[in-house]
Amino acid sequence: MGGDSMGWVIGLSLLAAVLLLFPFTSLWIHVAYRRSGEDDQLTLRFLWLWGLIRFRYRVPMEDISRKGLNVREKMDTNARDKGKTLRDRINWAAVKRARKQWAFLRENIVYLTGVIRRFLSRIVCERFTWYTEIGTGDAAETGVVTGLVWGIKSSFIGVAGSHIRWDRSPDIDVEPRFNEKLLHTDLDCIIRFRIGYAILAVIRLFTRMRRKGSEGKWQNTLSKA
C-alpha cells in the first residue's frame, strides 16, 4: 500500500512539474517544401520537449490543387447565376451597413495586428534556406524571370526580418538555366517559439473579442461583410 501511495505521489509530482513548465517549453516547426517540375512536396514536422515528442505531417498538395480548382469553378458558376441580381442588392442601406462593418473590422484588425506582431517578435528562425533553379528555354526571358524571383525572395526576407528574429542569416539563391525549361525550388525552414507566448496571444485575442461583444458578434460581422 505504501508503495502504491508513493507511486501516486511521484506521478502527481511529475504531472504538476510538466504543467508548471509547459508554458516555458519551446515548440519547433520544420517546414520543408520542394518543387521539381510538376511535383510538389510539403512536409511539416513538429518537435516538442527538445525532440522527445515528434509529429510529422505530409500535406497532400494534389488534393489542395483539386480543391482550389473546384472552388474557382463554383465561384465562376455563382458569379454567372447571381450577376443579374447584384444591382438589386446594392442600395443606400447596404452601403451604410457596409461602412459600419468596415469601421468595426478596421478598429479590431489594428489590435489583432498588434497581437500578432507581438507574437511574431517572439519567434526565432533557426534556419532558412531557399534555393531555386529556373529556366524558360529563352535566355532573355530567363534573365528577366531570374531577376523577378530574386526580387520576390529579397522582399520576403525583408518583411519577415522586420517581424521575427533570425538565429542565423537566411541563405537564398536563384540559379538561371538559360538553355533549359525547368523549375526547381527547395525551401527549408525551422522556427521555434515558447508555448507560453502562443497561449498568451490566444488569450489576448479571446479577451479582445469578448470585450467587443462576444465571439458571436465577430462571426456575425464577418459573415455579413
Automatic annotation (TrEMBL):
Transmembrane stretches, start-end: 6-30
InterPro entries reported for this sequence: DUF2953
Keywords assigned by UniProt, alphabetized: Membrane, Transmembrane, Transmembrane helix
Claim: Membrane is one of the keywords in the record: yes
Superkingdom of this protein's organism: Bacteria
Protein name, per record: DUF2953 domain-containing protein
